Automatic annotation (TrEMBL):
Organism whose genome encodes this protein: Fagus sylvatica
GO molecular function annotations of the record: ABC-type transporter activity; ATP binding; ATP hydrolysis activity
Topology class, membrane: Multi-pass membrane protein
Domain ABC transporter span(s) in chain numbering: 54-300
Subcellular location: Membrane
Cross-referenced PROSITE patterns: ABC_TRANSPORTER_1, ABC_TRANSPORTER_2
Main location: membrane
Zinc-finger as UniProt keyword: no
The protein's name: ABC transporter domain-containing protein
Family: Belongs to the ABC transporter superfamily. ABCG family. Eye pigment precursor importer (TC 3.A.1.204) subfamily.
Transmembrane segments: 396-418, 430-450, 470-494, 506-528, 534-557, 623-644
Chain spans, region Disordered: 1-24
Gene Ontology terms: cellular component: membrane
Amino acid sequence: MASLLQPNTRNHEPNQNSTTLSSTALEVEIINPIQSNRGRNVVRTMPEEDGVFLTWEDLWVTVTNRKVGTKSILEGVTGYARPGELLAIMGPSGCGKSTLLDALAGRLGSNTRQSGEILINGHKQKLAFGTSAYVTQDDTLMTTLTVREAVYYSAQLQLPDSMSKSEKKERAEITIKEMGLQDAMNTRIGGWGAKGISGGQKRRVSICIEILTRPNLLFLDEPTSGLDSAASYYVMSRIARLDQWDGIRRTIIASIHQPSSEVFQLFHSLCLLSSGRTVYFGPASLATEFFASNGFPCPTLQSPPDHFLKTINKDFEKDVEQGLDGGIPTEEVINSLTKSYKSSEIYQHVGRQVAEICKQDGGALEKKRSQAGFVTQCLVLTRRSFVNMYRDLGYYWLRLAIYVALAIGLATVFYDVGFSYGSIQARGSLMMFVASFLTFMTIGGFPSFVEDMKVFERERLNGHYGTSAFVIGNSVSSIPYLLVISLIPGAITYYLPGLHKGAEHFLYFASVLFACMILVESLMMTVASIVPNFLMGIITGAGIQGLMMLGGGFFRYPNDLPKPFWRYPLYQIAFHKYAYQGLFKNEFEGLTFPRDDAGGPFTLSGEEILRGKWQMEMSYSKWVDLAILLGMVVLYRLLFLGIIKTNENIKPIVTNFMSARHKQATQVMMNPSTTPLHGEIIGDIRKQ
C-alpha cells in the first residue's frame, strides 16, 4: 500500500532530474542491443518489416449498466506492441488489464463503448483467421482427452484440408514439444473427480491449441493465474521462447497480475495501469528507475513487480492503519506518477513510436490458409465428442445405470399387467411414466452440456470451426448412446409387464423413447446456450418440461384442459402430447379388454378406449405422431443453432451501435468488439 511507503519526499514531486534520467536511460535502452531472455540479441529499433505491429492511441472504454450508470474502464491509453517482443500489461485488480487486452483483440462485450484508434501495421483492419490467437484465463478443455488427443483434434479442425493427416499430426507433436509437454502426451487432461495433468501443464495445453496455426499475434489473459512461481516461470519462459522453435517473430501481449522477479525479467515492455490510467509504458527494465526517480525506490529485498503494485494499489487503503509519519494517500501517488509519466521523455518516445509505426507501409494482414472444410469439421467433432461421451461416466453411463434401475422398478410394479379392466389404467400410467419421467431424467446430463458449450465458446471465438459443424457433430455423436439407453431399459420396461406383443410394437416403443430423449437433450442444449449455469439451467429445463407435462393430455384429459394457454397453444406444441398419443395407440390398438359395467358388448376395443377414455386424436396413425416427434427434434436442434448464430450476429451490431453513439470528438475504432476473427470467418461459416 502506498500509504505505508516512506517515499523519498525530496524526489516525490516530479522534477527535472526525473525526465533527464528517463531520457538518458531510454536512449541507452533503444540504441544498445540487450540480451533477451528469449535466447537472442534483440535490437530495439524501428521499423522491422515483418511481423505484426499493433498500436493504440487515446483509447477509451466505458461500460454501462443499470446500477452504476456509465463508468470509464480505460482512460486515454496509448501504446504499441512490436514483433519479437513480449508486452506485459500489469496492474492491481480492476485496473483494466483484461479490458485493454480484450479491446486490442476485439473481444469487448456488447455493453461497452470504445473510442480511440487501434491500428494493425498502421492500418485499420480486422484480425484474419490464423494471424492471431487468444488464450483465455480459464483452461476450458475436454478433461477426458489426453494431451496428444486434445492438440491433434484441434490441429485437424484448424489446419486446412490441403495438409495431410500425417502433417497435421506432426504439427501437433512439434507444438507439444515446443511447450515442453512431451512427457505428458499420453496423460489425460483430467478434471473434477479424475486426476490428470497439473495446472501449469493445462495452461500450456491451452497455448498449444492456439498456436497450431503459427499466429503472428498472440494474446494471453492472465497466463500465470492460479500457478505457483515455478510453474508461472516455466509457462512464461516457454511463451517467450516460442520464436526459437518456429522462427516466427511473434508479437505477444499478456495481461498478468503479479509476476515473480524471474518472470518480470522475461518482459521486453511493460504497460502499468491503475484505475484505467497509464502509470508507466515503456521498457520493462526502466520501470524500477522510473519509480525511484519519482520518490518510490524499490526496497533491496523486494520484487519490483510487488513494489509497483503495492505503490499503486488503493483497494485496501481503508483497511490499513493510518497515521504513519510521511504516509501518502494512494490516489495522490497514482496522480503523481501519472503526471510524471506524461511529462517524461518515455511518454514522448511512446508517442513517436506510435507515429512511426502508423506511418510505415506495413501492408494489410493476409488471411492464412483457412481451417478445415465443413465435412472434415463435422467428422472430427463427431469423433471427438463420441470419445468424450464414452470416457465421461457422467455423460451417459451413469444415466444408463439410473435408467436400468428405474426400468426394473417399473417392471416390478407393473409386472404381468394382464388384460383386465384395471389393466387399462395401469397400461396408461406406464406409458405416461415412460414418456414423461424417463425422458425427464435426461436433464441429468445438463452439467456435461454446459461443459461442452464452454469448450465450444472458447474454440468458436478463435474461429476453430463453424457453428453448424458443432451442432451436427454433437447431435450425431449422441445417437449411439441414446439408442442403447432406449433399447436396454426399454426392453426391461416393455417385456416384463407384458405389453403389446410383437417386435414392431416394441421397436416403435423404443423409437418414441429415443425420440423423446434426444428431443429433451436438444431442449437442454438450447437452455445451456442461454443459461450457462448448472443450477439455473436445470431449474429452467425442469420448469419447461413440467409445463409441457401438465399440458400433455394425461393428468387432465385434452377436452377438459382450459383453453387459454393450456389447450391453446401449450397442448399443441408440447412433445408429451405426441409421445402419449404414439405410445397409447401402439399399445391399445388391436387389443380388447372386458367391460366393467353391466350390459352392452362383453369387451371394449382398444380404439374405443383411445377415443372415449384417453380422448386421443384418431384421425391419423401412430407413425404420424412419431414423425412429429422426430420433426420436433430437428426443430429444436435448429433452434439451438439459431440461438447461437443470433448471439454471434447481434453482438457486433449492438457493439457498433453503442460505439457510434459514443463517437463525439474522438474517432471510433473500426474493429468492433466482436471476436478477432469475426470479420473474416463468420461470413464463411454462415455459408456452411
